[in-house]
# Entry
Amino acid sequence: MSELKNRIDFVYIFDVQDGNPNGDPDAGNLPRVDAETGMGLVTDVCLKRKVRNYVQVAKNCENGYDIFIKEKAVLNTLIDKAHEDDTVKEAKDKTSAARDIMCKSYYDIRTFGAVMSTGKNAGQVRGPIQFTFARSVDAIATAEHSITRMAVATEKEAEKQGGDNRTMGRKATVPYGLYVCHGFVSANLAKQTGFSEEDLKLFWEALKNMFDVDRSAARGLMSAQKLIVFQHDSVLGNAPANKLFDRVKVDKKCDSAPRKFEDYTVTIDKDNLPAGVTIEELI
# Structure
């Protein structure tokens, strides 16, 4: 495994058409919205979930690429299992030894970090990769649709309907939204968790392809559109992340309501970059 030696900042742009990119359980699972501006939101937790799902499918939970936070996982059982390893039993600092085992075993721990002090203590890990919330470029228009299922759940419901057997429901969508997310990769924290260049390559692969392995009727058509990477030639970095992010501009070019990615232009200022910083477009 090659050690990660450079700080990286990135801009990730994706869109949704006729779907709900991230429902809010506190608002009847409607798409998340900034109440003051009407801009759509997608949480960092939602995006990390999709990365986890992609890695789980791509690597099939092989050694070193298992997923800690996954469906139906019992976390304390996994933490306790690490303490059963011989290297942990023989170690003076069992917490640190168990932490190392967990980082080596689970991709999402060495990538995003984890709290592992809920059972037999395996400490806490700060992950080298973090996301901001994704925010839509323009205000989104949330639409609610009535839907019908030609079936009922119980015989009692069927009797009430005289065998008509219909169940009404609601579905919320965004007609179109273009979302921008900012991310950070810390070489310093990567060294602590064992996150490698190979792990980073898998992470980029996940951002490019994760929507294609995580389809659902509720999410409509979600697509990765741009992945712009700013790489520094040092561990601590050569320029503030916000100044680099300002070089990426997304502007609407249509007069009507946008309904596709081509209704926007994405421009990247590559002139007079700070010394030690390079730009690469992975999508």
Remarks:
- The first strand starts at residue 8 and ends at 19.
